[in-house]
Specification:
Blueprint lengths: L5 E7 L3 H11 L5 E4 L8 H4 L20 H6 L9 H14 L6 E2 L4 E7 L4 E6 L4 E9 L21 E4 L14 E5 L3 H13 L2 E6 L5 E3 L7 H9 L1 H9 L19 H14 L15 H18 L3 H7 L11 E3 L2 H4 L5 E5 L5 E4 L3 E4 L2 E4 L2 E4 L8 H4 L2 E3 L6 H4 L11 E2 L2 E6 L12 H21 L5 E3 L1 H16 L29 H13 L5 E3 L1
The structure holds ligand NA7.
Amino acid sequence: MDKKNKFDVIVVGAGFAGMYALYKLRKLGLQVKVYEAGSGVGGTWFWNRYPGARCDVNSLEYSYQFSDELQQEWNWSERYSGQPEILEYANHVADRFELIKDIQFNTRVLELDYNENTNRWSGKTDQGDRFDTQFCVMATGCLSKHNVPDIEGLDRFQGELLHTGKWPHTPVDFKGKSVGVIGTGSSGIQSIPIIAEQASSLTVFQRTPNFSIPAHNAPMDKNHEAAVKRNYREFRKENALQRAAIRMTPNPESALAVSQIERDTVFEKNWLKGGLPFSASFSDIGVSLDANATAVDFVHRKIKGLVDDPEVAEKLCPKTVIGCKRLCVDTGYYETFNRANVNLVDIKKHPIKCVTESGVSTSTGDHKFDALVLATGFDAMTGAILSIDIKGQGKQTLATRWEAGPKNYLGLTINGFPNLFTITGPGSPSVLSNMIVAIEQHVDFLSELLKFMQKNAKEKVEASLNAEDDWVDLVNNIADQTLYTSGCNSWYIGANIPGKPAVFMPYIGFPTYVEKCKEIVSDNYRGFEFS
Ligand code: NA7
């Protein structure tokens, strides 16, 4: 192999994980190369350019903390940042830390193949590159393989067909157009109010209604920003002790220990504050069905208060527990259904039969559109990794290994796939935490691991089978004590993708995860096998 195609580390993906992995691993003196399918950095924020795309974590938290200079010099304009500003930030980071020179854009990794004789991986990209590397870092993102639903006739549609997760780079003008949106998860809920303002008519096809809490987004409070920046390190430290590494004021009280009036006062206060902290209104909302039902009842009353037509309001009220699917955060979502140009179709009751050349046909009739938006989500957590043909020891493919669901240790390393790491992989806090915090923690852990290997002249590392089994059990045991596994069809358990094994994927609880990682390191990397 040509020397220029030989690397110490290949990083797949130049989103926030890939960029930080490059920054950090380069510092170990390693030769690192990043392959990125898109034409720029930013991952999620590069692809999800749909109108209204916005982060649901506060801007002062949803940012890197590895460089104090960076976090001091960057100013966010809003409480919750929109996609364009986050992408601008990603580009700033790439420039500031000279990352671009080691990233090859417009290049998708297709194959990774482990060679047991050399303890190295060889790989192939869609641009015909072949490479050879000791380590592979999968920074492929948890929500990056977009899900195109298997609806008959989708390719027949003659209007503009869009997917929120793969939005065009040029502005899409809905002015005067009739538009259909399929899907009411976060992407649908964020984009629907804006599309409704532009389009002549908008029809929303809803299969399952979702709970959404108002964002109450606002320009950044400069005094608050200055106060956080004065003490940024402490602010980050405190946040890392929160269950999702997101700043909240969890109420230690049970929802069932107070009267309805007291309960509603707490819910109302958190509704007015807005965003994800609503879920921390009481200690047992995520674990007790009865407590959860009180939050469900409160939000149902809110929806019914916001939506004029009682029938439409009823359709918008989710019938699941709150929070077992990712809670959405919106700006004017429910109110949008009071507009004369917006129509809601319940496709659970009246399923989509097919897409035609001119629109969507359901069991109750045909809907004609100029544009059709698929807000149908992602093959989450495993989709992007498994899109690559990965062959480990004994030529076993990862797809076979994970046939019954993902198995690994710490969400980071897989038995039989040495020197390959999944940043914020299934089995780690990832999507149930502040993603950037989780990314930095994982990359820091990996960097220390590689340092340890350099120091101890080790070439190969993988999880032991026992450690992996125990870890998978632990992830499931924790989830089983919560309402995440109470039967709702969330992407956390792969239920949105037909045929995907139903396994709850994220590790719940960032602080306990970090503690476990520390314990494992201090116990000489318990569960890791080196040679
Ligand atoms: P989500 O949350 O997975 O939402 C996808 C939506 O699309 C959801 O309402 C689905 O209904 C619907 N969907 C998916 N497939 C179909 C088919 N075949 N027919 C009709 N409707 C369908 O994805 P998002 O992009 O909104 O958000 C993903 C995450 O990004 C979000 O959780 C945040 O963390 C950020 P279903 O509920 O499956 O019945």
